[in-house]
Amino acid sequence: MKSGPQSAAAVVELDGLSVRLGGRPVLSDLHASLAGRAIGLLGPNGAGKTTLLRTLLDFFHPSAGGARVLGQEITGNGKELRGGIGYMPESDAFIAGQTAVRFVRLMAELSGLPPRAALERAHETLFYVGLGEARYRRIGTFSTGMKQMVKLAQALAHGPRLLMLDEPTNGLDPPARSRMLELIRDIRDRGETHILLSSHLLADVESVCDEVLILKQGRVAACCNLTEQRRANRSFVELELTSAAPGFGEALAGLGCEVALAGDRRLKLVMPHAVAVRDLFQVAARHQAAIRRLDCKRDSLQDIFLRAMEDDRGGV
Amino acid sequence: MAVYERAWRPYAGRLTPIGRRFLVVTRYALAEAFSSRLFTAFYAACFLPSLLALFLIYISHNLALLEQLGLTREFMGGLTLVFFRLLFLWQAIPGFFLMAILAPSLIAPDLANSALPLYLSRPIDRRDYVLGKLAVLFLVVSPPTWVMGIALFLLQAVEEGGGWGVTNWRIALAYLVGHLVWILVISLLGLAISAWVRYRPAALGALFALLFVLSAFGSAVNGITGSSIGDVVHLTRAVASVVQHLFGAPTSSGLPVAVNWLTLAAVGLLSIVVLNRKLRAHEVVR
User: Fold this and answer.
1) Which of the 8 DSSP states describes residue A46?
2) B interface test, pick of A110, A113, A179 with most B CB neighbours within 10 Å
3) What is the arrangement of strands in the sheet containing A85-88, beginning at the earlier edge strand?
4) Cβ-nearest to B123 among A80, A89, A124
5) Which homologous superfamily does the CATH classification assign to the domain defined by A1-84+166-231?
6) pLDDT in tens, B20-45
7) Lesser CB count within 10 Å: N end or C end of chain B?
């Protein structure tokens, strides 16, 4: 893959990346160039998010195509590439019998930090993630939330340029989840580290990421810049009528709305800036359409996600 | 940065050379092994045969002491090839137990706790990981075996003088090559079983079982066929024959020494294949 001027700033570039595992295609012909400070990987379970992360870490070899992370090809540069990456795996992963500080220090040393610096940063990072008081406890005695935090600490300790987080809020209760997301946002806002967050939780991705890649059955279903989407600030309306009103949908389309019918009494609209809710009521009055329910909301990641998931079925 | 600031910063300091990164794995595993007092005590005990041999070499060259004790220099038949062969055996047995105790604890806990993705998401690969773990066994087992053996050989050569060292060079060769082969084969086998079984006590049991089963099977085949063909899978006999050959003594196996070497090479290669299949950041379910 050639790197053009645009791809020089890209964090992750996928160039027809395909991966087969156990003879099955898991990722197929992925194309994307992601340059956000925090990039979300979204998709239902089994969409290939974790496989993509592992492929970017050079755990799996592409069956076709290629990918670049921080400007480096993933194949053949595994060690150099991983030196700049911090990875927090999805499942429980630790070294038996070790205290948190020893574990994080070991991971930092494996990433190339000299022993003294690794020890210093292990302490700092554990305090940063809120495990300062528990840093001399064995990880085996930690709760799920603490284990998630120690996994984040080991991914951070060596000061990576790219932080790969695989379902970081898995198994966390609401306060712990909130704390984890707060930490991730803090890391993002420091501006030194890019974040690649894989999750099936839309709210997590929406609260952290500025760019999102949506995967579905191993293919790219959508790739969008959330910041721009938010800036566009489109309004979505869901209408339900008491009875069918012929011509109502066409009249709304005449106003400039994008209209999708969900049955003969339910409509979903995307309203342009010039149109207000009051205009909808006026059109309804002209067509003698009685509105039973009206939900109005801004364009959210959920809409983008649902559209991406529904695209294959021809929309609503 | 003071820890109370609870902040995080990128790292901009010096990095250690990437080629020596596997030694971090070794260092931590060594510290883990010697954190057990029982293991440390056993390790110290592994030096006893060599210390006893040192004492005997000292006595045999201390004519005044021998005279006081009423002994002659030939009190134990002289420090002959037999003496060093016996010493080799008494070094190799505790060396084997060291490896048997240590090897299963090196990989099995990492696999049981899914730690491999953590190791392999760093700038080390599977080869570095195995090398790091092998180095632990090498560093632990070497001092009480071949290092002490060569040291005693040199001491005896210096004390004896008169070209004893040159005449008996095969002793040094046997100590160096014999122990290194023994360490390498058993270490690889132990690590492979550890990677396969993933449960430390079971891995320890499996290592002993495999050695005994292979030996028993080999002996049974020999008994049934009335030949030495069973020695092909008789691992301990293969090692013994190779070492005996290195000492220049008659071998206990009925097969040519080349076949014994091939048996050891096959066990080593098979272990590497198992390690290659089992040590992956993530298993692929087919």
Assistant:
1) T
2) A110
3) A85-88, A162-166, A194-199, A38-42, A211-216, A219-225
4) A80
5) P-loop containing nucleotide triphosphate hydrolases (3.40.50.300)
6) 999 999 999 999 999 999 999 999 99
7) C
